[in-house]
Amino acid sequence: MTHLVPLPVVMPLLGAALTLLLLGRPRAQRWVSLTVLTATVGVAAALLVKSSVDGPLVVEVGGWAAPLGIVLVADQLAALMLVVSAAVTLCVLVYSIGQGMADGNEETPLSVYHPTYLVLTAGVCNAFLSGDLFNLYVGFEILLVASYVLLTLGSTETRIRAGTTYVVVSLLSSVIFLVAIGLVYASTGTLNLAQLVDRLDALPDDLRLLLQGMLLLAFGIKAAVFPLSAWLPDSYPTAPAPVTAVFAGLLTKVGVYAIIRTETLLFPGGRTATLLLVTAVLTMVVGILGAVAQSDIKRLLSFTLISHIGYMLFGVGLTSALGLSAAIFYVVHHITIQTTLFLAAGLVERRGGSTTMDRLGGLARLSPLLAILFFVPALNLAGIPPFSGFLGKLGLVQAGIDDGGVLAWILVAGGLLTSLLTLYAVARVWNLAFWRAPHPEMPDSDEAAQAARVEGAVQPQQPLPNGHSGAVLPKLMIAPTVALVVFGLVLTVVAGPLFELSTDAADDLLRRTPYVDAVFPGGTP
Amino acid sequence: MTPNLTYVIVIGVLVAAGVTLLLERSLTRVLMGVILLGNGANLLLLTGGRAGGPPIVGTTPQEEMSDPLPQAMILTAIVITLGMTAFLLALAYRSWHLNGHDEVQDDVEDRRIMDLAERDEVPDDDVDGDDDDDDETEAGAERTLAGTVDSGRAG
């Protein structure tokens, strides 16, 4: 079974090469991308089952033995992340294909879209599977470089402006990460995560704290933790809807995953727990206050994204098994829900011609299906029972109360306040865009909106090329959004087993030995 | 290798100059900053491994070999920096094409707050400020014009 482990990285990379060769043949490109991502979902699911039964799966890349060669490790946490992210990327791919078929290639997807998208997937999978600090860096770089291209697709003025900030900030975080890697290697002589476990424990305390701080800083920028999060709401909303959706779902979560991995495996003991908890509460509260002040749906959702990263840090900072498992559960929930909301926002933009709430209204009556597609995940995000958002927050609050410290209580209060303000923010979107009377400038039927698109009265600002319907809500865009809404509901239904799984994963993380033993069955060299 | 002072100073200067340039507004300078920072980080990686002869079996006794791993990592990092340099250059060029300059612009939110702040100000208080504004607008217009002419030529 271990030969399955490298596939989530290898298949998308090969697919990217193939789609590059098929430039100018969009139909073939679509089939290649779809096949590759569907296969990735299957492999990821198989890895999850196998790693829950038999413990972590390890592959020594190229057959070189562990401390010298690079290892890929699929433990439960990595496999769970793989399954969710592969499923989400597949849905977003279908959505973007639907959008491309309705509108032509003017806006998205350009011919370079498919290869870049697959490279992004490969980077994300590589980051999850990596058992080596430098390979983790390479995974980050792969996904970041792909994200630069996707963010500046079409290179319009706003995208260039937003892309500049995004690229420079990401480059800075990569340099910090690289310096941290240099220091780790200089002080321990290895970068293999399993081998680092013992060697880092042997280092003097202040040196360890320095290394831990630098890695946290680098991952904190990528995860958009509060003082380091200003780049996110500025850059994400300008990208095409499917790109924003997949970024919002995956990229920040890769940062969170890296924080979970390093905090538990390399630096246990919670020496930065106070720092994590303080930044967690600041991220939650400042982020959601930003969301409340927005008048554009995409920007508002970007701020809720930052805010809810705080919940995951909350769970990591508690350093208890319950806190960690709730954090893992929350990551799974949030990847799904945040992506769904951005896809729904993309549909709102098509139907209403804008995502500014001042210019929207009456969508609940004009397009009931769209209203449901927004309403269900919105309530889920806010944590209304019985949805998975509620269960995740319940787990975190429970873990906070169990901890009992003053800071933990402050976080519980902050978490509940954030939940309430999230409800306020999404309820505002609901009231303004869906519930009130239709805005006079809005097309009053799907056909009118479609005609406006074909004539170029709304984006993409020019008449569509022949042969494209300009359909406002094409089936291929609706279907993946529905699928993700349903997936979010399924997370609620299977919350019991899923929570057991995340508890198992958290236990393994906290014990550390399952990971190390899997990489070095004969003892650490 | 054992870190010697020259080495550490060179790394320090590279990183300091890189960070200073990174804080500039012009994307070309930011790019220079990124390159310097990247080189500083690469040199730092190099100090992490043992120095010695070429690590090839048969040419150097095993105890005298240098550590090849940092060098391999630096190669990877150099390739990544190269790709990023090309991408940033393209970004700067495109920005110059569109706006006539390659300056990193303010965030949407910042501009909104600045607009609000300007509206709150009493006009009489800020005669000088207004003049500055006018100059900038003119300069901006000129630059845009130059950009259009050049891009016309390029097209």
UniProtKB/TrEMBL annotation, chain A:
Entry keywords, A to Z: Cell membrane, Membrane, Transmembrane, Transmembrane helix
Protein name: Cation antiporter NADH dehydrogenase subunit
Location in the cell: Cell membrane; Membrane
This protein's record includes keyword Cell membrane: yes
Residue ranges of the TM segments: 6-24, 31-49, 77-98, 110-129, 135-154, 166-187, 207-232, 239-260, 272-293, 300-321, 327-348, 369-387, 407-427, 476-499
Domain NADH:quinone oxidoreductase/Mrp antiporter transmembrane, first and last residues per copy: 130-417
Superkingdom: Bacteria
Keyword Hydrolase appears in the UniProt entry: no
Record-linked PANTHER family: NA(+)_H(+) ANTIPORTER SUBUNIT D1, NADH DEHYDROGENASE
Family: Belongs to the CPA3 antiporters (TC 2.A.63) subunit D family.
Membrane topology, from the record: Multi-pass membrane protein
InterPro entries tied to this protein: CPA3_Na-H_Antiporter_D, NADH_UbQ_OxRdtase, ND/Mrp_TM
Automatic annotation (TrEMBL), chain B:
Spans annotated as Disordered: 116-155
Subcellular compartments: Cell membrane
Pfam families xref list: Oxidored_q2 (PF00420)
Membrane topology of this protein: Multi-pass membrane protein
Keywords of this entry: Cell membrane, Membrane, Transmembrane, Transmembrane helix
Keyword Transmembrane tagged: yes
Main location per the UniProt record: membrane
InterPro entries with a match to the protein in the record: CPA3_antiporter_subunitC (IPR050601), NUOK/Mnh_C1-like (IPR039428)
Top-level taxon of the source organism: Bacteria
Keyword Manganese: no
Biased composition range(s): Acidic residues: 121-139
Transmembrane segments: 6-23, 30-52, 72-93
Stated family: Belongs to the CPA3 antiporters (TC 2.A.63) subunit C family.
PANTHER family: ANTIPORTER SUBUNIT MNHC2-RELATED
Name of the molecule in the record: Na(+)/H(+) antiporter subunit C
